[in-house]
Structure formats: C-alpha cells, structure tokens
Amino acid sequence: MLAQIKNTASFIRSKIDFEPEVGIILGTGLGRMVESMEIQASIDYRDIPDFPVSTVEGHAGKLIFGTLAGRRVVAMQGRFHYYEGYTPQQVVFPVRVMKYLGIKVLFVSNSSGGVNPTFRPGDLMLITDHINLIPNPLVGPNEAELGPRFPDMSEPYDRRLIAWAGDVACKEGIPLQYGCYTGVTGPTFETRKEYRFYHTIGGDAVGMSTTPEVIAARHMGLPVFAVSVITNMGLDGAKASHEEVQIEGAKAEMKMTRLFVGMLEKLENFV
Fold it and tell me: What is the tens place of the pLDDT at every residue in 64-93?
C-alpha cells in the first residue's frame, strides 16, 4: 500500500506543478464548491493509477487543484464509500495520497441524517467527535512511515479549528450546530429503531462516510475539520432518498462555501 501511495503521488506531481496546503473532501451534493476556486489543474479519478472511481450520483470523480481564499488546495470532487465495494484501505487511499502531495490539514464535508431532535434539514453541524461503525481502515499490517500502530483518537477533530469556525460563522451570520457523527456502512438508509439507537448511544447525525477518512488522517498526524449538512431528519419517521440528500446538500452549499472560505483565510498561522 505504501508503494502504491508514493507511486500515485509521484504520478500526480508529474502532471501538475502544484503543492497543496489543504485537502478538501466534498460530500454528496457539495461538489460545486470548486466553482469558487481558481482552478489550476483537474484530473479525473479514472486517469490516476490505483485511484478508486466514484460510482455514486452526486460525486463527479475529479481531483481539483487550485487556490481558494489565497490557499493552495486540492479538492476531492466526490469520495469513496465502503458500500461501493471498496475496502476500507481503498476508501482512505486518496487521503494518504493528498498527505504525500503536501497537505498540512484536511477539511471534510458530508451530507447526513439528523438524529438530534433539535436539528432541522439545512443545518450545518460541526463534527466534534464521532462513533465509527464502519470497518476500520487501519486493520492489517501497519506501515510505520504512515503512522503508529495504535494512534490516539481522543481528539479526532481539531479543537482550534472548531473554535475558529465558530468565529467565522458568527461573523458571516451562519447558524451552526455542534455534535457527534455516527459513521455506518450503508447503503440502506436507517430504520426508525436504528435512528433511535444512534441517538441513544450519543450520535447527533448519521452518515455513510467520513469516519474512515478521519481515522486515516489522524493516523498520519493531519489535523481535521469536518462539517455535516443535515439533509433529512431520521426521528420524524419520514422516508429518506438519495435525491433528497442531493437537493438539501445543494441548498446548503453556499453556507458551506462561506464557512470554508472563512476558515481558509484564518489558516495563515496554522499551516
């Protein structure tokens, strides 16, 4: 795996003269954030050696390089999921490649279902902790060059970045929720009892991504900032659909972009 990571990073560097500072993962319905970037290069996932390929609607499947708020960023316009048939190691492979391309911090977004009864569709939730119910990407032989065998996960989401996000949101007039994200395998949406279970064990939102990527990032020592767009409410008994998730994600995209731009502007003393 380490050789593949290095080979893929080397291939990308051979195609572009650009070293990113920040990696951004754009979730379902959130891919249009790249329209705010000054794009310098774009590579289809299909053209990158050993890279998985997005199979889910709403995930364009491109690696975008450019500047946003004066920062050099690489954005994943579409991510990968365990339910697509990829191994946990394949799901997080792009995160590891971005680290070898030079990123110093990782921003993550997702669309998720709300299980906190005070939330509403369209809310932005800063992820302060998570419960991972997806197979762990660190299972198997450990590559010491990537990180320790038993990485600490007491602070998966960087407290300083969360505090900065609160300041940005206050300045921009963006209401925020804070909470715990529960990562599940999918691809089925949850039953009513499952939603209640996730709420009972401490979850505020539930989705089918993010936690493996965050685990891999923290394994490599990357600080992480993550936001969920609440696209539906699981406790109200309403039926969920992927189309609904895409629509609500798109509605919240402008707020997400303003928040990310404000965060990037504050990173001068961080990266």
Answer: 999 999 999 999 998 999 999 999 999 999
The CA–CA distances, whole Å, from 47 to 39, 79, 85 equal 18, 15, 20
Considering Cα of 131, then 252, then 63, then 56, what sign does the dihedral take? Answer: positive
pLDDT for 94: 97
- Does domain 2-269 bear CATH number 3.40.50.1580? yes
Please report, to the nearest 10 degrees, the dihedral formed by the alpha carbons of residues 260, 261, 262, 267 taken in order.
90
- According to DSSP, the residues that pair with 124 across neighbouring strands are 176, 229
Q: Provide the token pair at 53.
A: 């390929």
Alpha helices in the chain (DSSP H): 2-15, 88-101, 159-172, 192-200, 211-219, 242-265
Say how far apart CA 37 and CA 67 lie, in whole Å: 6
For 117-151, the pLDDT digits (tens) are: 999 999 999 999 999 999 999 999 999 999 999 99
